[in-house]
Amino acid sequence: MSFMFSLDPFVVSLAYGEGKRLLKVTIPLELSAPEVDARIKGNSQVVNDSSLILLSIKVF
Q1: 9, CA 20 to 30 Å: which among 1, 40, 41, 45?
Q2: Residue 43, helix vs strand vs coil
Q3: Residue 2 has what DSSP assignment?
């Protein structure tokens, strides 16, 4: 059985390409146990920031 948690959708500006490239993302996370849900919710800003940093350095 898997447990899911979806981050709120957000828009990322991609790095360097010609013109402006935006990416709208919704990230679902598969959790190992239902207790992890509370930890993710408590740290959702950290998870969102990490996702934003990771995606914003991608080149299209």
Answers
A1: 1
A2: coil
A3: -
Helix (H, G, I), strand (E, B) or coil at 5: strand
- How close are the terminal C-alpha atoms of the chain, in Å? 35
Q: Which two tokens stand for residue 50?
A: 């990490």
Give residue-wise pLDDT tens across range 11-53: 988 877 677 888 899 999 999 998 999 999 999 899 999 999 9
Strand partners, 10: 25
11 φ/ψ angles, rounded to the nearest 5 degrees: -110, 135
- Specify the number of domains making up the chain: 1
Domain that holds residue 26: 3-56
Give the predicted TM-score (pTM) of the model.
0.69
